[in-house]
């Protein structure tokens, strides 16, 4: 393993440990929160820009930033793409019901859902359905194909109900830090 790979693995282990330890935001001070809030809105910020926003020296800021990563408060960096610009014109929320008593199918279902590129998010929920899935599709025909040919054929799935999004009112991953 390369040195960089080893460091990344160490950071991932630290993140898992912090999450497993149940570490909460109670250990964050005002400066940590400033750093997190700025990074949520400005993911491509330089350390100098981040330091200025956090009111720290660049060296102090870098130490705190790395510590927040190591402690699992920052889990990853990503770029949000414009779905419509890439041809994805349909966004749907799909409610999935699983067969009762088929607990052995759940791990396989979760693995298969995790491998489906159209699935943006999937949550196990309480209520009338077992899962809520957020899906993108090129068009309604593609969504229909996904539902009929793939999702409904997964082990343990008994029914699905989809709701197609008409208009996006708010979409953010930013947390209120």
Count of alpha and pi helical runs: 6
Order of adjacent strands in the largest pleated sheet: 2-3-1-4
Shape: elongated
Distance between the termini: 36 Å
The CATH superfamily label of the largest domain reads Lrp/AsnC effector binding domain/regulation of amino acid metabolism (RAM) domain
Polypeptide structure, described:
This protein has 177 residues and is an alpha+beta fold. It folds into two domains: 3-70, Arc Repressor Mutant, subunit A, CATH 1.10.10.10; 84-164, Alpha-Beta Plaits (2-Layer Sandwich). Helices cover 40% and strands 17% of the residues. The protein has six helices and four strands; from the N terminus they run H-H-H-H-E-H-E-E-H-E.
Topology diagram in text:
Layout: H1 3-20, H2 30-41, H3 47-54, H4 58-70, E1 90-98, H5 106-114, E2 119-124, E3 131-137, H6 140-150, E4 157-164
Antiparallel strand pairs: 1-3, 1-4, 2-3
Helix pairs in contact: 2-3, 3-4
Task: Fill in the keyword field for this structure.
177 residues; alpha+beta; Arc Repressor Mutant, subunit A; Alpha-Beta Plaits; four-stranded antiparallel β-sheet; elongated; disordered N terminus
Quick take:
With 177 residues, this protein is α+β, with helices and mostly antiparallel strands. The chain has helices at 3-20, 30-41, 47-54, 58-70, 106-114, 140-150, and strands spanning 90-98, 119-124, 131-137, 157-164.
């Amino acid at each position: 393993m390369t040195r960089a790979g080893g460091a990344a693995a160490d950071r991932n282990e630290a993140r898992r440990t912090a999450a497993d330890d149940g570490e909460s935001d109670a250990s964050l001070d005002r400066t940590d929160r400033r750093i997190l809030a700025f990074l949520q809105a400005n993911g491509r910020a330089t350390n100098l820009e981040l330091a200025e926003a956090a009111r720290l020296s660049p060296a102090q800021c870098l130490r705190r930033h790395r510590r927040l990563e190591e402690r699992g408060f920052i889990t990853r960096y990503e770029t949000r793409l414009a779905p419509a610009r890439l041809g994805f014109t349909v966004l749907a929320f799909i409610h999935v019901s699983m067969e009762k008593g088929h607990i052995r199918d759940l791990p396989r279902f979760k693995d298969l859902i995790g491998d489906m590129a159209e699935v943006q998010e999937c949550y196990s929920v309480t209520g009338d359905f077992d899962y809520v899935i957020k899906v993108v599709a090129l068009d309604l025909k593609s969504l229909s194909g996904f539902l009929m040919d793939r999702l409904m054929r997964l082990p343990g799935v008994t029914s699905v109900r989809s709701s197609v999004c008409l208009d996006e009112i708010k979409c953010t991953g930013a947390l209120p830090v």
